């Protein structure tokens, strides 16, 4: 076994387990969580990846979103990776929005980040192989992806780049054009260097001009989200999807914020969206 | 206004707010949280008190139990007080199970605790008066009470002492005979002095021999709870209820622990139990 189980809890008839493993791609020890629904006792179940936002780890969504209830109802396995490489040997920054906890689901090309920061490779290649080998009844032929904020950016970009792998996609309050907003510009400059075509491949709004998926992307964002106008800018992505024929259901939710109370409110609808798409 | 709102989030169509206020009874600043369901916009709704366990504050249950979904479904307001007086002027102990975070829902008589530690008076008298005066559409004629671990002890003892106030009662993994287990014995000795009749009034198992409520008390406890045999001892309370005619539905839940994943799994059933009792 290449994974070490560090915690396990029974939850809604299924099981939440947290694992450590040595990541070759990221060159550090990584931790991730898997919620296995009760249906996995009887056979393979679809796999839904949740990518978290800035500062988060596996714990935020597993502790605060209530996802286990809907996952158990629909028979979906949910995997929550960390948001960056971690540890003493990994570069970091004093700010919360760069370095550890802020991997932005990309492959860094600039020092000091390039050695460890390859979260897109980790999420799409190394971790799925580990899960396929070590987590029982994970049906890797039926995968979906979703996330929050920076993780919404990750989910949409990875879905658009790998539509045959991640057949369904949704997001809560996603950063959909990092190249145009402060969070993304700061991170891209540090990880990727000055503005270049490299930035476009990690920008959902630019990507969707080049390639569209056959799935309908589901997005919920709160109207009281304090990052709405500065960092999220829904209209840019909505316009690009409409202009390029990407099916999108972007819902503005009156009075909700950027927090897990908002996410918990609509979590069941997102899981139902993925369940419908993955069980077809 | 005697309360200061420190945070507020929209959640499941309702609102979660956190308040600070100056407690005269406890002689310190206290913080509590109120989940107001959407139905409170149209008129009074029942009030359900949740008492947390050792080390917890209002946040654990509001962040991790998913209670908002069921509270919004049934139209129940839920209030989560803190577990003890807090602050620099309040005595504390290095251990997690004594002092701040470990109020045990009693009135201390021993130094240095007696000045501040009066959590039963705070919960049953001062805080309800504040809520009645300042929280809109809290129907104080329809109150229930529940809690976890030390808070399960608090909920059952306060229900048995005030059955006309708290018409419904339930608990997750409660300490039902603190006078007989290490957590309770340590706390009672510190707060109440050597074993005496004073201990009995804060012990659910002793109380139920003297007085029974007309409600059916609902309890869920996990069979994999690491505190089961040493601190919780279900059989002592079950036997006392049976012998004395207290209606009790005590359910052992296979494989579940002492954690909020367990609580979240059965939270909706507990809220439905209270809703049924309070809406009669």
UniProtKB/TrEMBL annotation, chains A, B:
Highest taxon of source: Bacteria
Assigned GO CC terms: cytosol
UniProt enzyme class: hydrolase
GO biological process, one term: formaldehyde catabolic process
Catalytic residues as annotated in Swiss-Prot or TrEMBL: 149, 225, 258
The entry's keywords: Hydrolase, Serine esterase
E.C. no: 3.1.2.12
MF-aspect GO terms: carboxylic ester hydrolase activity; S-formylglutathione hydrolase activity
Record's catalysed reaction(s): S-formylglutathione + H2O = formate + glutathione + H(+)
Function: Serine hydrolase involved in the detoxification of formaldehyde.
UniProt similarity note: Belongs to the esterase D family.
Name of the molecule in the record: S-formylglutathione hydrolase
């Amino acid at each position: 076994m290449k994974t070490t189980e560090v915690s396990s809890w029974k939850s809604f008839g299924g099981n939440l387990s947290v694992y450590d493993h040595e990541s070759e791609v990221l060159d550090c020890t990584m931790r991730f969580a898997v919620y296995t629904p009760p249906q996995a006792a009887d056979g393979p179940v679809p796999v839904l990846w949740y990518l978290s936002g800035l500062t988060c780890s596996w714990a935020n969504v597993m502790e605060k979103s209530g996802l286990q209830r809907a996952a158990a109802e629909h028979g979906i396995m949910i995997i929550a990776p960390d948001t960056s490489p971690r540890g003493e040997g990994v570069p970091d920054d004093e700010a919360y929005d760069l370095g550890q906890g802020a991997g932005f689901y990309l492959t860094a090309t600039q020092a000091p980040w390039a050695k460890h920061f390859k979260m897109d490779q980790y999420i799409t290649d190394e971790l799925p192989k580990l899960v396929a080998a070590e987590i029982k009844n994970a049906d890797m032929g039926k995968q979906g992806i979703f996330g929050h904020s920076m993780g919404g950016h990750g989910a949409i970009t990875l879905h658009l780049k790998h539509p045959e792998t991640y057949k369904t996609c949704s997001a809560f309050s996603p950063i959909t054009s990092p190249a145009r907003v402060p969070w993304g510009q700061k991170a891209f400059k540090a990880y990727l260097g000055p503005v270049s075509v490299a930035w476009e491949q990690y920008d959902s709004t630019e990507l969707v001009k080049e390639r569209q998926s056959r799935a309908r992307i589901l997005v919920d964002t709160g109207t009281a989200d304090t990052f709405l106008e500065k960092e999220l800018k829904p209209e840019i992505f909505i316009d690009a999807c409409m202009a390029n024929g990407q099916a999108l259901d972007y819902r503005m939710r009156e009075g909700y914020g950027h927090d897990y109370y908002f996410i918990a409110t609509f979590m069941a609808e997102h899981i139902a969206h993925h369940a419908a798409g993955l069980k077809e």
